[in-house]
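[Automated response] Your request has been received and processed.

Submitted sequence:
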Amino acid sequence: MKLVVALSGDAMITRGAMVRATPGAEALRTLLREADVAFTNLETVAADHDGPHTSHPLTPTLTADACVLDDLADVGIDVVSFANNHALNLGVPGMTGTIRELAARRLAHAGAGKSLEEATMPAYVDRPTGSVAVIACTSTFGTGDDASGPAELMPPRPGLNPLRFHTRLHVRPEQLAALRAAHRDLGFDEQLKYAVDMGFLPPLPDEQDERLFGQVFREADEPAVQTWCDPRDLERIQRWVAEAAERADVVVVSVHGHEQGGALTEPAAFQREFAHAVIDSGADVVAGHGPHRLRGIEFHGGRPIFYGLGNFVDQIHLQDRLTPHTYDVFGVAPGSPGARAAATSTGFPEHPEYARSVVATLTFDDGALADVELWPISLGRDRPAAHRGAPELASGPEIGTIGEELAELSQRYGTRLRARGDRFTVHAAAEHD
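Generated structure:
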């Protein structure tokens, strides 16, 4: 029996009428509705602005009326990830309020909850053709946004499902010497010694490492950034993936992260480590979110990893309510000329690559992956403000532009794309030859 799963990118939805009266928008809605299960990453607190705003650095608050979720349901979305750096923009009340509003519309969610285990556990969507489990986590989040388990006399903390990671910066000997001197001359050596002596900061376990300016450095022949998953988080998520694989026909793992490798379009090393590990534990597909632009596609064990699906909805500029923190982030005073426009504008419209995205449809036949198709979508960066950011299937030359970009990004992983009319099929190189 065939089961079709549709995966989309980041949904920064703040206003209604997501589906415009255009053939491309209607075709996208048909595509999503015809899938057995359709998924997106919800990057908006949609709880009628309930809860105090948070003040995490460089994180403008993204909020909307709860009715925007009606548009997601109308377009065919069945399940969302709510593990990202915006989910707690209005604190725990905003997070739990959004979860209630999702449930009221029969939209499943994963990645946030009243405790760490609840935030980690899968969301299940059951259809006559089969069952899909979704597990969601994020590596980018504010301090205190991550959920916790209970202690002996303390209740758990509500929040997100975290994927923490570690970083080591490799630098040349002369670079390390300069860093040491600057750290000493600025008085930070004394502060660091105090923190370690008082037990506030544990000593580094490896003698080759040094802690300078809040980072861990190691001498090396060439500069490099080394990252790896926190084993506790990785093992916890793998445990739930293995359980989901026994209880569902298809397991989707969603991971949100702003981190990068050597370029914006490359995943960090820990992100690849994570994707490979959860597939080895039973995941059928990994969907990456957070960069707001396309990244390459890799196959591991015959199962696809989408390192970046791009934006699905981008209505940041249409927010109705802004917090004082949002104005602070953009350096403008509330009520000053052009303040609202400045605080709701991002660089996305200035850079066309952030308006090029895809919806991926995966067809499973009796649990085995049979087909992967990519449907290029456009967010209409040249449309008037009220219409900009709403998705529709791309047309004309834009289809080829998106396909060429993804083909180039995926080539390094041995993945190839083949044009099929207005969409592309995706293959591991060995399958394509």
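Summary generated for your ticket: The mean pLDDT is 93. The chain has two domains: 2-111+283-432, 173-219.
If you did not submit this request, please reply to this message.
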